[in-house]
């Protein structure tokens, strides 16, 4: 049975992990017969957003690891607890937390950097040549992590695609139902809610991504 790490970035689309994407990822893994363990960096969120009004709560602070525990039903570990020998692959759902907490693409665009704790965590999988799946906006970390020419997709948003390529990545346009596979680097990506109009559309690409990840992990 394959064991897959899932990297979360908080809880809630506007300041953390996109909940639908994370749950669909966990469901797809479970239905495919894989085990999973959720991880998150033990850092503060960039900010806290009221998901009802869309406004930033300037008085509030929240911790990414603590908030991620909401999605993981408490079963979440800090990224520093990773033992790479226990895992066959990694999947990273999207949501603004991927672009605000895991990296700072939301504020810095093509000049973004990946949080050092996150870099260390993902690099364990890269150095071990294990597959990594990136969902929604999470693929914007691919050029920073893998270097020039690494392939990925965020769908077809013109400005985001331009930033991906400017960072040295090789973007491939995709529909919500597609995955893009970089066989050389064992990267799989799908647009999910970068394009999805509903949860069923998001599920289409995520399920294919999980299936490909498990295939690459053999």
UniProtKB/TrEMBL annotation:
Which Gene Ontology terms cover its molecular function? Answer: lyase activity
SUPFAM superfamilies membership: Class I glutamine amidotransferase-like
Q: Which named protein is this?
A: Glyoxalase
Q: According to the lineage, what is the superkingdom?
A: Bacteria
Biological function: Displays glyoxalase activity, catalyzing the conversion of glyoxal to glycolate.
Q: Which reaction does it catalyse?
A: glyoxal + H2O = glycolate + H(+)
UniProt entry keywords in alphabetical sequence: Lyase
Tell me which family the UniProt entry assigns to this protein: Belongs to the peptidase C56 family.
Gene name linked to the record = elbB
Q: Give all residue intervals belonging to the DJ-1/PfpI domain.
A: 13-141
Q: Which Pfam families match?
A: DJ-1_PfpI
